[in-house]
Amino acid sequence: MNAAKVSIIVPVYKVEPYLDKCVSSIVNQTYTNLEIILVDDGSPDNCSAKCDVWAKKDSRIRVIHKPNGGLSDARNAGMAVATGELMAFVDSDDWIAPDMYEHLYRRLAEDNSDIAACGVQMVWEDKKLCRMLTRAGSCVLNQEEAMQAIIEESWLKQPVWYKLYKTALVRDILFPKGKYHEDVFWSYQAVGKAQRVSVSDHIGYYYLQRGGSIMGAGYSLKRLDAVEAKVQRCTYIQERFPALSPLAVKDLWLACIYQGQLAMRTLGKAEAEKILAYFENVIETHPFQMEGCSAKERLWLNMAKSSLVAACRIRNALKKKQNGAKHGIID
What we know:
By secondary structure, the protein is of the alpha/beta class. Helices cover 45% and strands 19% of the residues. Helix 1 links the parallel strand 1 (6-12) and strand 2 (34-41).
């Protein structure tokens, strides 16, 4: 079972209370042919020393100490030195099930796939709540099916950390330094190179929900990066998967509506108007035919086409919600 080495990249920054649990869950994997790369991204707490202690405990662990450059920069640094035939990512405040990589490796081998994804359980710090991020069921997707799934966030979600990749497939796809929602920039490119993607609901990854994250905030200008990523994705889809272009553009419009609602609710009038003007420009420069949209989607998309401000204001007044994790599903 341990034919291929798996390089696991773990960016480390200000996660001292969580780091030991994370690393322990990796070193205790039933799949043992691992290269564990801890990237100390200039963490100001005791994480640097903790990483070195772990390296002394387990010869499979190597540590990179570098100046702070952000999550993307840390992942890129890890990818640059990885030697495994397979590659994976784990965020250092999360943890994984003991058999996660054994299960994912088996899926790659048996399905002859390039990427394998497992189930993800979201866990809150107070331990009172937990729910599945990923859907129930298993499947093997071809290239176009996988791309549709990542756009719709159906069988595949944006995060990179619950998947196993063939290294040759993704090594030259760099994470965008200085951007938030970096996985939205990266994941569609990885999927676009995969001929087959295996998806399983076997729970392998535990995604910790803790305070202070961008996803927990009402609105931040950092969220604009998600729209930028989807603009870039639309260009990529149009060039390589033109049949999926309407779906990608629809998702971009929905993201603009979702973020427009948040901006109107949480920002001052002048700042919100600037952001909404940007979203209106995005919509105007990415037209599409609404064939295949539901009646409810048509209603809101046509309203946004006429006036995004009006659409967002009315939706807020009606308390219409959208899926924030996806950045744009209309209810």
